[in-house]
């Protein structure tokens, strides 16, 4: 395991026969490598993380059963990778549950966790407990609850007492707040060993003080981008266009290419929000904009014009680079771009 993840890391690509591929990693290949490793580690099918119905990720409560000997090592490793991602100002197209972010990045007493912190854990459970909190005493009694819950660990149901002899203590209007508090803390305490290891991994790379000014939502945006509409003007202002033809014997850009780019940005501005997100994901690998705007996107956004080509646009996500053919008209541009971003065609690793 690398002792210092703050240091520059260079990746050598190896082909199928084990030989080094040509090219030098200036940072783009490492971005691609880091993001792919993180995506693999966070994939719920691997058992380390689980996803809510709204696709927010949090530690899988069954991870210690799936990986009984080294689950904490896995979470420590993933924490270091997320720390490196933040340190390098990179984005990945994932979202963590707020309660998980709060416990992983902020100094927080788990005993203070209340009902709102499980909203991103289980929205239905949150709704049920909120109903219990607000309903009439008669409705509480009609629910016929006691201080025990059923848990499912890889298909095995188990009854757990939330307090001593909990299955013999009925929930009523007077003690329902205690029941809710014990329920929430039980859910979160199951994840504590995973979260502690994950947090230790992050702090191996990131000084906790660096993130003190950010809220849980903002920290989530530092990792996976901001849940907001894409500001096309901001994106345009922080995009560098390469390979624009120049007028003969002059350094001024050719009028045709300038008009083509104007039409490109008008087209992007008129796209529905979902299509803008697909375009951004196609180019950068993340469908959401950076927390601090596109001036903070790394690597910076670029467009390389490809003359004398009518193929689909392609993208080098490791460089945040769109390779855009110069089509004969705006209709063709719109059609080809739509095909590329909706079929995820044309991906290149450059």
Automatic annotation (TrEMBL):
GO molecular-function terms, A-Z: ubiquitin protein ligase activity
Catalytic activity entry: S-ubiquitinyl-[E2 ubiquitin-conjugating enzyme]-L-cysteine + [acceptor protein]-L-lysine = [E2 ubiquitin-conjugating enzyme]-L-cysteine + N(6)-ubiquitinyl-[acceptor protein]-L-lysine
Keyword Transferase: yes
Oxidoreductase keyword on record: no
Protein name, UniProt field: HECT-type E3 ubiquitin transferase
EC number: 2.3.2.26
Top-level taxonomy: Eukaryota, Metazoa, Ecdysozoa, Nematoda, Chromadorea
Active-site residues per Swiss-Prot or TrEMBL entry: 318 (glycyl thioester intermediate)
Organism, scientific name: Dracunculus medinensis (Guinea worm)
All residue ranges annotated as the HECT domain in the record: 1-350
Keywords: Transferase, Ubl conjugation pathway
GO BP annotations listed: protein polyubiquitination; ubiquitin-dependent protein catabolic process
